[in-house]
């Protein structure tokens, strides 16, 4: 029976680890996965804040922002100036660093934990290959559920800052969180949107990580061998280009899978909104849940490509191999 490399072997056998030990991080590679995931999610979501502001406004007030994305940008600029396009930046940065660390860290803990017990090569290309899909799905779903609980308070203050800039725009994020807790209570204020966040983030992450994992594995294990090459024949720059392209594919599919819940999340946090998720869904109908799909596809595909590029680039810096292959 074939067995997979233990985590420590992956870490110590990496060429990058020999060049840059970073011993202060210890020999637990999952800490490194978490750091890489946190930095990738933080940096890429922070960059996309202006587009996310416009997307949220379109979802909240579709009758006002109904002339396309460029017009929506202009309206936000006229109303709130450049500051309006950066609303919620701090909440986005904090929230997605924590969420990214949980998402990628626990995904690797769960995925590799299962594969190390039953044999990675048996799952990836052997008699247990049929388990590959359920392992990816279950690991990504559980990891995202943990990350989503941690993200929920930050997402609540981000959306309120975007939708109520006159109230929350001048507050720092800590004061904003305290205001929500005082006026609405912790559970209702921070976690009122938890169900739609889960409905948004879990399908998003399951699709994103599963598609990305399959795409990179197909390239390294399926496509390259047809040309008589392996992953080791590619330099780091070429491997990161693979991560970039696979990230675009993963981003487009995950955007479509999670968009209806993303729309509901924005509407649940709309000022004065007291209806339940089901009541909102009935009122906007099937067509309404797809409001803002074009800017979100643009945002998410760009975001996903950049995120996986930063993720794998940071992994290399921390002494880990890029995603995919042996």
UniProtKB/TrEMBL annotation:
Coiled coil: none annotated. It is a multi-pass membrane protein. One of its GO terms (molecular function) is phosphate transmembrane transporter activity. SUPFAM superfamilies: Mitochondrial carrier. One of its GO terms (biological process) is mitochondrial phosphate ion transmembrane transport. InterPro entries: MCP_dom_sf, MCP_transmembrane, SLC25A3/Pic2/Mir1-like. Solcar repeats lie at residues 28-113, 131-218, 238-317. It comes from the Eukaryota. Pfam families: Mito_carr. GO terms for cellular component: mitochondrial inner membrane. Keywords: Membrane, Mitochondrion, Mitochondrion inner membrane, Repeat, Transmembrane, Transmembrane helix, Transport. It is found in: Mitochondrion inner membrane. The keyword Membrane applies. Belongs to the mitochondrial carrier (TC 2.A.29) family. This is Mitochondrial carrier protein.
């Amino acid at each position: 029976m074939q067995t997979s490399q233990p985590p420590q072997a992956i870490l110590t056998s990496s060429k990058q680890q020999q060049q840059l030990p970073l011993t202060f991080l210890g020999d637990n590679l999952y800490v490194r996965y978490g750091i890489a995931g946190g930095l990738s999610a933080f940096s890429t979501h922070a960059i996309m804040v202006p587009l996310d502001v416009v997307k949220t406004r379109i979802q909240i007030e579709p009758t006002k922002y109904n002339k396309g994305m460029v017009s929506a940008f202009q309206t936000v600029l006229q109303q709130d100036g450049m500051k309006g396009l950066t609303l919620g930046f701090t909440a986005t940065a904090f929230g997605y660093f924590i969420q990214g660390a949980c998402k990628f860290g626990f995904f690797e803990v769960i995925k590799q934990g299962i594969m190390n017990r039953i044999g990675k090569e048996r799952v990836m290309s052997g008699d247990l290959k049929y388990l590959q899909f359920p392992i990816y799905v279950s690991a990504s779903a559980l990891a995202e559920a943990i990350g989503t609980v941690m993200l929920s308070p930050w997402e609540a203050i981000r959306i309120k800052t975007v939708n109520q800039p006159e109230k929350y725009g001048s507050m720092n994020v800590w004061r904003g969180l305290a205001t929500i807790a005082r006026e609405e209570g912790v559970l209702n204020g921070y976690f009122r949107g938890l169900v739609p966040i889960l409905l948004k983030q879990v399908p998003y992450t399951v699709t994103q990580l599963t598609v990305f994992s399959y795409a990179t594995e197909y390239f390294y294990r399926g496509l390259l061998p047809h040309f008589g090459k392996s992953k080791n024949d590619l330099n780091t720059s070429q491997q990161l280009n693979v991560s970039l392209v696979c990230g675009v594919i993963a981003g487009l599919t995950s955007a479509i899978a999670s968009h209806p819940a993303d729309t509901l999340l924005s509407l649940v946090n709309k000022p004065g909104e007291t209806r339940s998720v089901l009541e909102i869904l009935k009122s906007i109908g099937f067509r309404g849940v797809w409001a803002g799909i074009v800017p979100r596809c643009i945002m998410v595909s760009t975001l996903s490509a950049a995120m996986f590029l930063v993720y794998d680039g940071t992994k290399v810096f921390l002494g880990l191999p890029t995603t995919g292959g042996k």
